[in-house]
Amino acid sequence: MASSITQRATGVALYGGSVLLVAWLVAGALGDGAYDFVTGLLGSPFGLFVLVGFTWAQMFHMCKGILHLIWDSGHFIGKEQALLANWGVYGLSIAFTALIWAVGLSVAG
Amino acid sequence: MASHATKHFVMQRFTAMIQVPLVIWLIISIIGHAGDSRDEFMAWVGEPLTAGLMILFVLSICYHMHLGMGEVIEDYIHKKSSRSALDLLNKLFALTLGVIAVFSIIAMTLIV
């Protein structure tokens, strides 16, 4: 199913993206210069573009991961249900990403 | 004793379950701290609850992502020597990232 390979691809993307979170933490510990550099990079147009992608990858991976946990428990495994759930994961992950950025941009101004 | 594959399966699910509430917490927190100055950021990370949850999250994702990347390597890399080398790199990367992150978090709790 298409969403299996997407789960793997978003997982690999998040593997790389984890460096962004750690960079933020390291910069905070290092000093003002490092902190301004990293937050400036993340807040640049390119940085924000990457973060939107990162957000979607995270939301997709989480939603699909939850679906896998539900499947592990033996629920929702009928052919049609599984197909519906797969499309639901795409829809939900996009909706969550839009919600997070709508709230985020309105809070941060 | 559980087999290697069973341990992998259980730990992947276990870390995944831990991470669901932690990711939600982290995203809400990041929205609240996106425009922080360094002092504000350190004050937030330096709170015991933040530092504790952040360390838990970092350790969990480093373990989870090394398991996932291990699967990818196993599925796509068939040459034995390359596979072993990449496996080692994968473990080193996850471990190093985790250590650096935890060290940074602890440093911020001490600076504050």
Oligomer: heterodimer
The geometry of chain B reads as: elongated
SSE pattern of chain B: HHHH
- Element-by-element helix/strand order of chain A: HHHH
Number of domains of chain A: 1
Number of helical regions of chain A: 4
* Rg of chain B, alpha carbons: 17 Å
C-alpha end-to-end distance of chain B: 45 Å
Low-confidence region ranges of chain B: none
Named CATH topology of chain A: 3 helical TM bundles of succinate and fumarate reductases
Shape of chain A: elongated
The computed structural class of chain B is mainly alpha
How many DSSP E strands of chain A?
0
Query: What is the SS-derived class of chain A?
Result: mainly alpha
Strand content of chain A: under 5%
Reported for the largest beta sheet of chain B, the result is: none
Describe the structure.
- The complex is a heterodimer of chains A (109) and B (112).
- Chain A has helices at residues 2-30, 32-43, 45-72, 79-108.
- By secondary structure, chain A is mainly α.
- Chain A is elongated and about 55 Å long.
- The model of chain B has no long low-confidence stretch (mean pLDDT 95).
- Chain B has a domain at 37-112.
- Chain B has helices at residues 4-33, 38-45, 48-76, 80-111.
- Chain B is mainly alpha-helical and 112 residues long.
- Chain B has 4 helices and no strands.
- Classes of the chains: A mainly alpha (109), B mainly alpha (112).
- Chain A binds chain B through residues 8, 11-12, 14-15, 18-19, 21-22, 25-26, 28-29, 31-32, 35-36, 39, 55, 58, 62, 65-66, 68-69, 72, 100, 103-104, 107-109, and chain B through 13, 16-17, 19-20, 23, 27, 30-32, 34-36, 38, 41-42, 45, 54, 58, 61-62, 65, 68-69, 72, 97, 100-101, 103-105, 107-108, 111.
